[in-house]
Amino acid sequence: FQLTGTLALAVFTAALGSLQFGYSMGVINAPQKVIEKHYARSLGLWPEGDPALSENSTRGVDMLDAGQHPEVIMYWSLSVAIFSVGGMVSSFLVGFVGDLRGRVKGMLMVNVLAMAGGLLMGLCKMWKPHIMVISGRAVMGFYCGLTSGLVPMYIGEIAPKAYRGALGTLHQLAIVVGILLSQVIGLDFLLGNDSMWPLLLGLSGAPSILQSLLLPLCPESPRYLYICQGKVEEASKSLRRLKGEYDQSADLEEMKKEKEEGEKEDTISILSLVGVYRQQLLVALLMHLSQQFSGINAIFYYSTDIFDRAGVGYPVYATIGVGVINTIFTLVSVALVDRAGRRTLTLIGLGGMCCCAVAMTVGLNLQMGYSWMSYVCMSAVFLFVSFFEIGPGPIPWFIVAELFSQGPRPAAIALAGCCNWTCNFLIGMTFPYIQEFLGSYVFILFAGLLLVFTVVTYLKVPETKGKSFKEIAAVFQKGHKKVPANTEMELEQLKSATDA
């Protein structure tokens, strides 16, 4: 078979949800000062006719005073963090929504949330901006929690084995393109200014309109049709649309065996995952923990502030530079992931990020004595992001779909997604306080965590490149075949299972 136009359309359409996720994550960063000012005015902490609200005023002492008021700080922090809370709650529903009407109709249904969230933020000046923005961000977070599970699930199920890694990485590519887009149009001379910022936030819901028009043209996942619905003929038609005219017998046989094995098992709930699929689940959660606790979100959320502290002139443009590097190295990952393998790229990424976190700490501490250290900080941030996008960024999202068969996959993706969103929320809320406490040593904490994740990944994560879902499952089942009485023998067997 060849890569068909229908497959390309289906992957592109699904990835529009990821683009929306990235845009929503990054959009809140650039216009922070402007939004804080409007919050202060809405809360009665700022005189209605104050000249400081003019369009040209985006800096200055008065502006800083507005952002430093405890009430404004609280509402601003809530505007940032509520997005992750929405994602944490809805990520549990990914399996339910995906199985309810199918992957395609599931994505179509949740687009209503994206449009509603976009409208709430876009029209926020019509009432109290702080209430409208927080509500819009909560709804958008709820949408993104669902789409961050549905998109990798759908792409993972329709992608041919040979291209599964590259196509799976496109979820992360769309996220980083969304972040970059939000950073560029968030510049104050475009939409990040006093009059246009509601439109900037409202555009979060725009990709859902295009996606809603394209989704009816996309075929449903053949694996969902065959294994979940038992519709063999429809699954065959879907395969033909996605892969062209080819011998389907191997694919249909694999799905048939998976369906038969799935029917022997009880319904897979999130609780039963812990008992039956403990090893796979530990690997999946480890991957998501390493992604979030690497410190990458500290850079995404507070990059402008980090560059400011490092003494970089025009920190907003340096932040956009991070977005560009982000996108370039995700493309590198797309090219490499099916050649080098998931495990190898993750190890290179985590190890490289660990070294960069150490370099960042050295740079931040010595910049007072050596002015050129600000360039060391800037280089370390750029390299940190590069290593992240080579492996730890894109791989956790689609490897969960590879580690589990059709039955437990939705529940596993829901649990891994909830883990990801919870960590995202914790970092977003605690990083400013950790930064306050540790000062210029803040990235040493992340360096230590990255070292631990590198070692554990080396010991526990198997390679899934080029393997069928059944072959991947067999890697983990090796550890369950015998239960030796001798503890040392048992540990040795587990080690051989994960090294396989």
Automatic annotation (TrEMBL):
SUPFAM superfamilies assigned: MFS general substrate transporter (SSF103473)
GO cellular component terms given for this protein: brush border; plasma membrane
Protein name (Swiss-Prot/TrEMBL): Major facilitator superfamily (MFS) profile domain-containing protein
UniProt keyword terms in alphabetical order: Membrane, Signal, Transmembrane, Transmembrane helix, Transport
Recorded name of the encoding gene: slc2a2
Native organism taxonomy: Eukaryota, Metazoa, Chordata, Craniata, Vertebrata
Signal sequence region: 1-17
Pfam families: Sugar_tr
GO biological process, one term: dehydroascorbic acid transport
Transmembrane annotation, as ranges: 73-96, 108-128, 134-155, 167-191, 197-217, 314-337, 344-366, 372-390, 411-434, 440-461
Membrane topology: Multi-pass membrane protein
Family: Belongs to the major facilitator superfamily. Sugar transporter (TC 2.A.1.1) family.
